[in-house]
Task: structure prediction
Amino acid sequence: MNHNKNTGDVSLGKMKWLLFLLGTVKIPMIGFVRPKLVTLNDETSEIKIKLRRRSKNHLNSMYFGALAVGADVSAGIHAFYFSKKMKRPVSFAFKSMSAEFLKRAESDITFTSNQGAVVEAAMKSSAETGTRINKPVNVIATDSSGELVATFVLVVSVKVK
Result:
């Protein structure tokens, strides 16, 4: 299920490599959980985290921290994607996060954000004004049967250099 819409020189393979490097070199927690980039295009990012020893809690469901990593990567990968498309570096962080856990995550979990346009608009605005822009980005988490297990709202903060 590879729905990559190539634009310019931003390929799904390059973004998978960037995610691997990010988790290995810059943010070891991402590397520890091993999220997999499934889909990335102008609108959608989709990340999958397997339920395994590294991501489980004492109830044999996905640990809160692993769920947070999935939401973080799903919301944040668009900043790197559009940075590559714009061929401009970006300073990127999360300003806040809220989550609602609806049921136990007892299988592999897929994190989806359909808000690429929000991130792209924030980055374009930042590039034009030279200021940091903050925008909320929604992420949903579904289990292997497609049931909604959690929703997240993360405020992304971007500054294009």
